[in-house]
Amino acid sequence: MTNAKKITLKIIIIGEPAVGKTSLVKKFITGKFSKDYRSSIGTNIYTKKVVLEDNKIVTLQLWDIAGQERWINMRHSYYSGAKGVIIVGDLNRKNTFDQIEKFWVQDINNYCSHVPIILLANKKDLLNKIEEQEIISLGKRIKTDLILFTSAKTGDNVELAFLKLSKQAILQD
């Protein structure tokens, strides 16, 4: 591994409050899920090293950005330098996906353009109120690079999401 190329990627995780952003990040970082909900204040930053193909060692800086409207004026400064974006919606709250299209994608396009974007439809372990086809249609409209249905609770597609985005970010950089 001495010849491995070392890369650092800043990845931002955005979406409405309580969609599971922090739970997804914590599941990826620690492998654990907590039922306790505490809203993020500003942003929480986590790091994790992963090894990709070709022995690429990637240090992921995961910026879990608060979704509450009161943080709107600070949020843009957190976007700076991002190499990839994960946008999260809650499969039990249609409005979280409406807001992705109405607000979050426009915000990213204004402050963080030309980076890969992955759409995560989270909480697939619960009874979902949104059809898969609606999510796929949204993904096409917002021109996301990938859509994954995830569960922070069970871990379904959580690691895959971060690894896929890392690979895409490296290719685009």
How is the secondary structure organized here?
Blueprint: E1 6-15, H1 21-30, E2 43-51, E3 57-65, H2 72-79, E4 84-90, H3 94-111, E5 117-122, H4 132-142, E6 146-149, H5 158-172
Parallel strand pairs: 1-3, 1-4, 4-5, 5-6
Antiparallel strand pairs: 2-3
What features would you highlight for this structure?
alpha/beta; 173 residues; 6 strands; Rossmann fold; six-stranded mixed beta sheet
Q: Low-confidence parts, pLDDT < 50 over ≥5 residues?
A: none
What spatial form do the alpha-carbon principal axes imply? globular
Mean pLDDT: 88
- Residue fraction in strands: 25-35%
Structural summary, described in words:
This protein is α/β, with parallel strands linked by helices and 173 residues long. 36% of the residues lie in helices and 26% in strands. It is built from five helices and six strands; from the N terminus they run E-H-E-E-H-E-H-E-H-E-H. A six-stranded mixed beta sheet has the order 2-3-1-4-5-6, with helices on both faces. The two termini are 23 Å apart. The mean pLDDT is 88.
Summed up:
The chain contains 5 helices and 6 strands, in the order E-H-E-E-H-E-H-E-H-E-H. The chain is of the alpha/beta class and 173 residues long. It has a single domain (6-172), classed as 3-Layer(aba) Sandwich (Rossmann fold).
